[in-house]
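User: Could you walk me through two proteins back to back? I'd like the raw sequence and the structure tokens for each, with a short line separating them so I can tell where one ends and the next begins.

Assistant: Of course. Protein one, sequence then structure:
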Amino acid sequence: MSSFHNPITIIIADDHPFYREGLVNVLHSSDRFKVVAQASNGKELIELAQEHEPDILIVDIGMPIINGIDAVKKITSLGLISRSIALSMHSEDSVMLQMLNAGCMGYLDKNTSKEELFEAIDSVVIHDRVFFPASTNTHMMELLSTSEYKPYPEPVIEFSERELEVIGLVCRDFNSKEIADQLNLGHRTIETHRARIMERMNVKSVAGLVAYAYSNKIIGFF
């Protein structure tokens, strides 16, 4: 695991106080995490995210006033550093795709275990990697490559051979350092490639890059 400042700061957004408090207790069982605020709706989440700019937002999709997807979309558009993981009792394909389109880096079922929750946070915050539960990961990749629902508009962008190499490795869960080692390039060069690719795709997260690549069949299903 790469070094990262401790504790990782978190905002939990869910309209059920009992569930929020349960998550707080689970996260505070480790000194690696600190819940800095709680939101009961999407409007509160947007305001608190701007106030605290935590490392990660754990966001219920089905919140009142502003739902979780629209709240994350707004936070992403504001350019805040916070990354986000979506929470839901439901896993409809269209909802998961909209979640990626909004800028989320991963998805967790509300019945997730403590171990999977911690793994998701580490994946997104420390390793800059997309996270889906093991039970849905393969389905998610297949969905992105076959679904008629396209979160990103046509036409498909033409990418250089080097860009396609970077896209393929990102989709195989390589982080920037590992991609740099694989391609014998500098870490900063890979970061520049990845930022340019995301800008051209008009996506805001690594999850968005993966979603674009699979949904537009830029790469094959691994």
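----
Protein two, same layout:
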Amino acid sequence: MQVHTPRIAIFSQKEIIIFKPQGLWVARTAKEIDFLCATLLQKVLPNKVVFDLSELSEFDTTGIWLLHRTFQTLQREGHCVELQNESEAFHNLSSRVDTYQPSPDKTRKKSSVLEEKLVEFGKASVAVARLTRDLIIFLGEVTFTLFSHFLHPKRFRLISIVSHIERFGVNAIPIVAIMSIALGLVLAYQGEEQLRRFGAEIYTINLVSISILREVGILITAILIAGRTGSSITAQIGIMKINQEIDALNTLGLSPMEVLIIPRIIALILVMPLLAFISDIAGLFGGGIMVVFSLNVSPELYIHRIGEAVTVGSFWVGILKAPFFGAIIGIVSCFEGMRVEGTAESVGICTTRSVVEGIFLVTLADALLSVFFSKVGI
């Protein structure tokens, strides 16, 4: 009776082992053949290995290639491979398969560590370039939609904007205030420690007030909002995309850009100056606590010194940065939310990217704006 299922019979003779392939070694049984060959290679074999092909009932290019791959693996491991009872049809087809086998001289050498790092750097560069391109396209869509809304004010969704202002702004006041107070305390303490060496600890008030109003207050606020609100926006839009709610909006003829994205971006642009102002006041309050108790300075003198050190320009530098930072956080968060691809893992990845990209772009924008305001004399 002819055997149809591929199998390998094994016979041992002293220091020789004989493998006898049987059954159908064709494309439709390739999965079984591959498993048989992998099992064979895992065995502890003697130096000489013989393949008896007398009972190989039917074969094609797939079966021959899998056999040849097994032969070559055994030869690379140092075994002497011998074929017996090879039919003419097997020999003809085998010679054609051999023609396409790469020679050892032409096989690709293992890449060096430098080459692998260069390849990784190239892939990362291409990914960053594509991300930048997509973000610029998304920014163009947001700009166009905002411009069309200003031409047609009735398209603004005021209820949605007010709701997001409460979520993004009012509910974030406690954490922003607490972090700013703590930062003011630390800044005043460290500044006093350094200035005490020169007998100029009274200038701690100048250090705290100028640094908080110009840089630290708005920057810590933007970082907190990027982590708190930005991640929330990305996760919310991502879950909507997974649940096909965005597809439902398109089906109803509603634009996700107008319904979901624009209200969130406008809300962040509006609440960031408010949060920056609260952060400035809280930071000055925290710094004042440290200065009053460590330098024995009266609160009245502290407030008076702040008035002397801080100009109107220093105050408005921080406030004017706030809308830009709010726009950056909103655009990046919504952009990453729209990139979610339908799995829970994708939501986590895009949320992480949203926070990282938001903080990076905010910090970069802060540096550029600081240089700009310095150049114009503000």
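The two ends are 97 Å apart (CA to CA).

Let me know if you want the two compared in more detail.
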